[in-house]
Amino acid sequence: MTTYKSNIQKLDSPWRRIALPPKETLQRLGLTDDVDFADIGCGIGYFTIPAAAMIQTGHKIYAIDPAADMIAEAHKRAVDAGIDRIQFVQSEPQDFKIPLESIDFALLANVFHEISEKELFVRQIWEILRPGGKLALIEWNNQIMDMGPPENHRISEEDTDRYMLDGGFERASTLDLGEMFFGKVYIKQC
User: Fold this and answer.
1) Which of 32, 91, 129, 146 could form a disulfide with 133 if both were Cys (CB 3.0 to 4.6 A apart)?
2) Quick check: 66 and 90 in contact, CB under 8 A?
3) Against a cut of 0.85, is the pTM above it?
4) Fold of 4-188
């Protein structure tokens, strides 16, 4: 059984900071400073806190996670970083608990493979995004490797595209994020 402490160490390790440097990864995914932002499955705030530092004052920033301990850790890290503009939201399985059509840019980093009801989850993302809003997704490459979830828990780029395109999104770009990860950006079309 994995402990809370070991999860934190995995979610913010020297290896991860090299493989997915948060600010640079967000820039590559197309995050700009003039958006309302949601980090869905924010974990410890690994991407949320750098995003908050990049986004102009006056824009909303949501850190969404179903796990109370992750929300608490993300909040602590934001306070330690001197960032007080993030709204921390403990979500429920079928409710992100933020207003509909309130987000310009949503991030889903290494979360989608864990979701059992993917169609419903994609629908929830669709509903919180404004028309023309972007969904940036990072996932583990679907191959055998020592890091990350077991191969049979991963999701392929093709399956990810299928879920998003079936959910009404249009693929905007695909990014090579190194040998471990792939990135996708989708746009909400109306």
Assistant:
1) 129
2) yes
3) yes
4) Rossmann fold (3.40.50)
